[in-house]
User: What shape does this take?
Amino acid sequence: MERRPSIALLSVLFFGIALLYVPILVLIGYSFNASPLVRFARFPGRLLLTGMVNAPLVMPEVITGITQLLLFVSMVQLIGWPHRGLTTIVLSHITFCTAYVTITVQSRLQGADRSLEEAAQDLGATPTRAFVEITLPIIAPAIISSWLLCFTLSLDDLVISSFVAGPGASTLPMVIYSKVKLGVSPDINALASLIVCAVGVCIIGARWLTTLGERRRALEAQRPGH
Assistant: This one.
């Protein structure tokens, strides 16, 4: 006779899924909505939602890794998916990176002039077009910064990846850690040098682009009529 999962196990599973994916869905929804994430009115459960989004910022990585491991194991037992591997690593990294994206984009939206969006809609632009042509360029620096931050955090993560990774799936920090336990080898030294050089090039490139932008704005400000 087939054994059915208990109600308690199903409740824990659904709560875990909600904890992982509701903040992501809410962030996506408010990104393409006329009401930005930082401007919507108060509603019941707003404090809980804010806490769920910001929880990965203060949650120890060990606790996050254990809870996600238990969640994925429960999902495999119930629905047969997802098996630990690249998929679970990606889902876990998306989960803890969402908080950093939310904070960065939220701070940018707080300083954005909403009258520009309203003016665009008064001139006939749809909410979608106003978002693409007005809001998106305003928050583009925050999106790029969030991407760079999430890329760095994901590349640097070892603890969470170690919990949710399965056979045949390894990240760069996991490979480095497994090698240095046996002693530092020349290939690890070469890899570290490449990473340092790549980071240096990115920093110089970012600074160069920032300088070009500042010069362009200064020239535009000096033109007649400004």
Q: What stands out?
A: The two ends are 80 Å apart (CA to CA). Residues 186-222 form the longest helix (37 residues).
